[in-house]
Each structure stands twice: as C-alpha cells, then as structure tokens.
Amino acid sequence: MTAENMIATSGGTDGGREDFSPDIKK
Length: 26
Prior knowledge:
By secondary structure, the chain is mostly helical. It has helices spanning 3-8, 14-20, 22-25.
C-alpha cells in the first residue's frame, strides 16, 4: 500500500481502503 493510497482514503483507515481499492478486500 502506497502513501498516496492511504492519503486518498480518509487517512488510510480499513474502511477507506476497502472503499478506495476493491482489490484489497479480496
């Protein structure tokens, strides 16, 4: 997970990551 992704997802919370990157859920 890159810092850019974390910034784009509400501080990089688990919920934000799932919402931002569907692949993470798998």
